[in-house]
């Protein structure tokens, strides 16, 4: 197959969140299966032409925008791991900025991006069988393939797959966005409520018009059909539930590899787990906690937001600090959590370390040196943190939701089955009790060692997920062809 992947971010070019990790890994896994895979993202100001060896492939495309105005863009080329061609849409006016999101004209920026992606394909003389779109930034591509390009010979047989990484971020704009995009037939009122009748969800266009809709875990695909997790989109998703599937994300097991990770004080694998202890001592030294090989060390790398369970942690942090533990929390987010956990770290300097940043090197040290990895999320479409932690032998404590439910099975001391610790009810004392269960299990070093071995031996590479995506692409192509023959 010829597969075009379209996203707003991808490692190593530009990253805000875990979406970039996915987009930076999936194309290579698909290419390994023998497919012609190409990737397209915007060329942001932070993407250095010299560092990424950017070469011009299309000098100028005039992209139509509102009021019959056109905007010139160019297309640059690079590669991902020397095997996947990468195209970068270059617009000095819209993308030559240091940041990626959060600008007042984000609607115009990504409308331009979507149009440019489709306009560049005939110029490249490359016609994909399927376009794989990610998040709201790319939602107009499935819409245009089914509307204004539906009868255009070059586009009419191109299938689309639309992946939702997090339904909470939908690209909500005022009705002005319809004028910019040239949309006359928008028929979805956000929230189905009169007070929101002037709001447009760009994501809804991708959901309504894609040949297949996917999410990043099987459990999340089921959860978003309910009002609790549907983010006011569950009605539309239920309408198209026959086209909805969930495919678990993978991780780049070459990059996240404790046997070769240069940031660890001591590399290790499942056969040399005794060497892992040096990483714990190194992490304790790095974060300023007393060096003690025996005290259980809990790690948490997260966005500081209530969605990630910070509201639960806030309510139990003082009793948690009374236990024989150490705790390191790294991340940024809501100011109220910055202030609250700063106070806790000052109150318990020998027990808690706080880093209000994201540092990739320290992240690897936390994965490789912590004993327990905490993810008590209210909802979690997939989650990559628990997958990386297990790869490094840090046992996850999670809430049973979304991808966390699909990857972490609660440990049963009676049978010895399970690979982590989980709780169901979103409640602070359920979280506290689950952490205590993990700490009690940690005291039995033989049992804990088996848990570490079990998690490190699990396969969360992209290999199996890529096979599932191939099946999904094939189904989308068949559905598209079926429409064409009717």
TrEMBL record:
Family classification: Belongs to the glycosyltransferase 1 family. Bacterial/plant glycogen synthase subfamily.
SUPFAM superfamilies registered for this protein in UniProt: UDP-Glycosyltransferase/glycogen phosphorylase (SSF53756)
Catalyzed reaction equations: [(1->4)-alpha-D-glucosyl](n) + ADP-alpha-D-glucose = [(1->4)-alpha-D-glucosyl](n+1) + ADP + H(+)
Gene3D superfamilies, alphabetized: Glycogen Phosphorylase B
UniProt protein name: Glycogen synthase
Signal sequence region: none
Pathway: Glycan biosynthesis; glycogen biosynthesis
Role played: Synthesizes alpha-1,4-glucan chains using ADP-glucose.
CDD domains, sorted: GT5_Glycogen_synthase_DULL1-like
PANTHER family reported for this sequence: ALPHA AMYLASE DOMAIN-CONTAINING PROTEIN (PTHR45825:SF11), GRANULE-BOUND STARCH SYNTHASE 1, CHLOROPLASTIC/AMYLOPLASTIC (PTHR45825)
Segments forming domain Starch synthase catalytic: 2-239
């Amino acid at each position: 197959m010829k597969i075009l992947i379209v996203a707003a971010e991808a490692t190593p070019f530009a990253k805000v969140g875990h979406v970039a990790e996915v987009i930076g890994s999936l194309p290579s896994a698909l290419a390994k299966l023998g497919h012609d895979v190409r990737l397209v993202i915007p060329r942001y100001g932070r993407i250095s032409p010299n560092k990424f060896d950017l070469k011009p492939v299309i000098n100028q495309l005039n992209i139509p925008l509102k009021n019959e105005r056109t905007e010139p863009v160019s297309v640059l080329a690079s590669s991902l791991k020397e095997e996947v061609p990468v195209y970068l849409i270059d617009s000095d006016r819209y993308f030559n900025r240091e940041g990626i999101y959060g600008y007042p004209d984000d609607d115009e920026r990504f409308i331009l991006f979507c149009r440019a992606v489709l306009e560049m394909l005939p110029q490249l003389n490359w016609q994909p069988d399927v376009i794989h779109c990610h998040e709201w930034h790319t939602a107009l591509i499935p819409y245009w393939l089914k509307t204004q390009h539906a009868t255009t010979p070059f586009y009419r047989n191109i299938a689309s797959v639309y992946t939702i990484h997090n339904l909470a971020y939908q690209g909500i704009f005022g009705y002005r966005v319809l004028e910019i995009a040239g949309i006359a037939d928008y028929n979805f009122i956000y929230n189905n409520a009169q007070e929101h009748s002037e709001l447009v969800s760009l994501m809804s266009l991708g959901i309504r018009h894609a040949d297949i809709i996917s999410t990043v875990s099987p459990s999340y695909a089921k959860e978003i059909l309910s009002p609790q997790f549907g983010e006011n989109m569950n009605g539309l998703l239920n309408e198209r539930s026959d086209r909805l599937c969930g495919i678990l994300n993978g991780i780049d097991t070459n990059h996240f590899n404790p046997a070769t990770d240069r940031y660890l004080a001591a590399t290790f694998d499942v056969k040399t787990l005794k060497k892992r202890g040096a990483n714990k001592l190194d992490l304790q030294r790095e974060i300023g906690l007393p060096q003690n090989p025996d005290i259980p060390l809990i790690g948490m790398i997260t966005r500081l937001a209530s969605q990630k369970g910070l509201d639960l942690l806030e309510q139990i942090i003082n009793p948690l600090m009374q236990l024989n533990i150490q705790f390191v929390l790294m991340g940024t987010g809501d100011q109220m959590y910055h202030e609250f956990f700063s106070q806790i770290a000052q109150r318990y300097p020998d027990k808690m370390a706080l880093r209000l940043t994201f540092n990739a090197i320290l992240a690897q040290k936390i994965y490789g040196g912590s004993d327990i990895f905490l993810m008590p999320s209210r909802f979690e479409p997939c989650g990559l943190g628990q997958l990386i932690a297990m790869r490094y032998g840090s046992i996850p404590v999670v809430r049973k939701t979304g991808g966390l439910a699909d990857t972490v099975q609660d440990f049963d001391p009676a049978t010895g089955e399970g690979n982590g610790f989980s709780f169901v009810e979103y409640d602070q004392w359920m979280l506290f009790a689950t952490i205590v269960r993990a700490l009690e299990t940690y005291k039995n070093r033989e049992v804990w060692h088996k848990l570490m071995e079990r998690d490190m031996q699990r396969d969360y590479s992209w290999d199996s997920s890529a096979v599932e995506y191939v099946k999904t692409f094939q189904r989308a192509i068949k559905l598209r062809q079926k429409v064409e023959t009717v």
